[in-house]
Amino acid sequence: DSPTANAVADITFCDAGGDNMEDFDLDTLAATVLGGQNAADVSIAFFESQADADADMNAVSGMYTFMAGTTVIYARAQNSSAGNCTDVTPINFTVTNPPSPVPPAALVEACDGPDGDGFAVFILSDQDAEILGGLSAADYTVTYHASQADADTNMNALPDMYTNVTASDTI
Question: What is the pTM of this model?
Answer without folding.
Answer: 0.68
